[in-house]
UniProtKB/TrEMBL annotation:
<comment type="similarity">
    <text>Belongs to the ABC-3 integral membrane protein family.</text>
</comment>
<keyword id="KW-0812">Transmembrane</keyword>
<feature type="transmembrane region" description="Helical">
    <location>
        <begin position="6"/>
        <end position="27"/>
    </location>
</feature>
<feature type="transmembrane region" description="Helical">
    <location>
        <begin position="173"/>
        <end position="197"/>
    </location>
</feature>
<keyword id="KW-0813">Transport</keyword>
<feature type="transmembrane region" description="Helical">
    <location>
        <begin position="142"/>
        <end position="161"/>
    </location>
</feature>
<feature type="transmembrane region" description="Helical">
    <location>
        <begin position="203"/>
        <end position="222"/>
    </location>
</feature>
<feature type="transmembrane region" description="Helical">
    <location>
        <begin position="32"/>
        <end position="51"/>
    </location>
</feature>
<dbReference type="InterPro" id="IPR037294">
    <property type="entry name" value="ABC_BtuC-like"/>
</dbReference>
<keyword id="KW-1003">Cell membrane</keyword>
<feature type="transmembrane region" description="Helical">
    <location>
        <begin position="57"/>
        <end position="75"/>
    </location>
</feature>
<keyword id="KW-1133">Transmembrane helix</keyword>
<dbReference type="Pfam" id="PF00950">
    <property type="entry name" value="ABC-3"/>
</dbReference>
<feature type="transmembrane region" description="Helical">
    <location>
        <begin position="254"/>
        <end position="273"/>
    </location>
</feature>
<keyword id="KW-0472">Membrane</keyword>
<protein>
    <submittedName>
        <fullName>Manganese transport system membrane protein MntD</fullName>
    </submittedName>
</protein>
<feature type="transmembrane region" description="Helical">
    <location>
        <begin position="229"/>
        <end position="248"/>
    </location>
</feature>
Length: 298
C-alpha cells in the first residue's frame, strides 16, 4: 500500500473505532468523559513505561486500561458523594493529566513521549514505524494495533449488544431486570481506554476526542435506531479521515487537526441539514405548521 493509503487507513480505523464507542457515550450523556480519559491515559502510558522501561503496545494497553478505569471510578465516586458530574470530571481529569505531565517531565523527557506529541500526535510518521515479523514488513504498527482494538470492541458490542443498549437508554430498567449495570459501565470504560491508547501515539488526544464525539453526535441526528447509529458513525468517521487528509494536503496543515476539523464540519452540516432533526427542517416544519394554522383560522 502507498504512503498516502496507510495514513488514510490509520485515520479511518481511528474514525471507526472511536465512532462506534462514542455512540454509547453520547447515549449515556457521558461524552465529556471521553475527553477526560483521552487525556488521563497519558498517566497510564508513562506509568507503564516507568514500571517496564518499554513503550511496547501491551504495556501501554495495560497502563491505559488501569488509569482509564481509575478515572471512571474516581468520577463515579465523587458524583455519588454529591459533587456535580461536570465538576467531578473536571477535578479528576485535570489532576490525573497534570500528574502524567509531571512524570513525563521528570522521568520520561529523553524518550519518544512528550506532551505536545500526546496532544497532537503525528499521523504522517505512521507508515515509517512498521511491524517486522520473520523478516517480513507487515505494515505500520498503528494499523495492527487499531485493527486489533476494533475487533475487540466489535466482539464486545456483538456479545453484549442487548445489555449495552438497555443500559444506554434506561439504566433503571436494566438494573430492575438483573443486568449488571456497573459491570457494563466499566466494560464501556475499558473499551474507551484501549481505544484511546491505540489511537494516542499516532494521532494524538485531540483527534481521539473529536472522533469519539462528533461522528456519534452526527449519527444521533440522522437516525433513531442504535444499529443504524453505529454504522453511520463509522461511515462519518471514515469520511472525516479521508476528507481531512486531502484538506490537510491542500492547506498544508496538520493532518490530525484537519481530520478533527472535518469531523466538526460534518457534524454542523448534519445539525443544519438532517432530514428529521436538522435546524433547517425544523424551520420548514414550523413555517408549514404556522401556514396551516392561519388557513384553518380563515
Amino acid at each position: 500500500m502507498s504512503y498516502e493509503g496507510w495514513i488514510i487507513l490509520t485515520g479511518s480505523l481511528v474514525g471507526i473505532t472511536c465512532g462506534i464507542t462514542g455512540c454509547f457515550l453520547i447515549l449515556r450523556r457521558m461524552a465529556m468523559l471521553a475527553d477526560a480519559i483521552s487525556h488521563t491515559v497519558l498517566l497510564g502510558i508513562v506509568g507503564a513505561y516507568l514500571v517496564s522501561s518499554s513503550l511496547e503496545g501491551i504495556y501501554m494497553f495495560i497502563g491505559a486500561l488501569i488509569v482509564g478505569l481509575l478515572t471512571a471510578f474516581f468520577i463515579q465516586l465523587l458524583d455519588s458523594s454529591g459533587v456535580q458530574s461536570d465538576a467531578a470530571i473536571g477535578v479528576v481529569f485535570t489532576s490525573l493529566f497534570a500528574l502524567g505531565v509531571i512524570l513525563v517531565s521528570l522521568y520520561a523527557s529523553r524518550i519518544h513521549l512528550d506532551v505536545d506529541h500526546a496532544l497532537m500526535g503525528e499521523i504522517a510518521f505512521v507508515p515509517w514505524d512498521t511491524l517486522v515479523l520473520f523478516g517480513m514488513d507487515l505494515g505500520p504498527k498503528a494499523v495492527w494495533m487499531l485493527g486489533s482494538v476494533l475487533v475487540i470492541n466489535l466482539l464486545i458490542i456483538i456479545f453484549f449488544y442487548k445489555e449495552l443498549k438497555i443500559c444506554a437508554f434506561d439504566p433503571e430498567m436494566a438494573m430492575a431486570i438483573g443486568i449488571p449495570v456497573m459491570f457494563m459501565h466499566y466494560l464501556l470504560m475499558g473499551m474507551l481506554s484501549i481505544t484511546t491508547v491505540a489511537s494516542f501515539d499516532s494521532v494524538g488526544a485531540i483527534l481521539v476526542v473529536a472522533m469519539l464525539i462528533a461522528p456519534g453526535a452526527s449519527a444521533y441526528l440522522l437516525t433513531d435506531k442504535l444499529s443504524a447509529m453505529l454504522l453511520l458513525s463509522a461511515l462519518i468517521g471514515i469520511a472525516s479521515a479521508v476528507l481531512g487528509y486531502y484538506g490537510a494536503l491542500l492547506a498544508n496543515v496538520s493532518i490530525s487537526g484537519s481530520m478533527a476539523t472535518m469531523s466538526g464540519i460534518l457534524f454542523f452540516l448534519t445539525f443544519f441539514l438532517s432530514p428529521k432533526h436538522g435546524l433547517i427542517m425544523k424551520w420548514i416544519y414550523r413555517r408549514s405548521l404556522s401556514r396551516e394554522k392561519r388557513e384553518y383560522q380563515q
